[in-house]
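Hey team,

Filing this mostly as a record. A colleague (T.K.) asked me to run one chain through the structure pipeline before their review meeting, and I want the input and output archived in the tracker in case anyone asks later how it was produced. No errors, nothing strange. Just documentation.

Input sequence:
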Amino acid sequence: MQTGWLNSSGHTFYLNQDGSMRTGWLSYGGSSYYLRYDNNQPVSGGPTGSMIYSQKARIGGVIYEFNARGEAHKALPGNIVPKAYKPLVEAA
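Output structure:
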């Protein structure tokens, strides 16, 4: 049974120890990642469980910026959103 990081069809997923797909926040190796979770709603930008990377996303009302490795960082101090900002991904 495969566990850990999985690259498939151009997307990155994380499989738990029991082989199930991880969704939501994942702390791994000192970094935080977000694996798309649909919460019974459409998911923008990729399939459920796929890692968000190289973009900004609003998650739980907070804007995060994800680097090319998928590591999350708060986009702006105090989560101030510039008027021109349009999030690329809306996640649960």
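Quick notes for T.K.: Confidence is low (pLDDT under 50) at residues 81-92. The longest strand covers residues 4-8.
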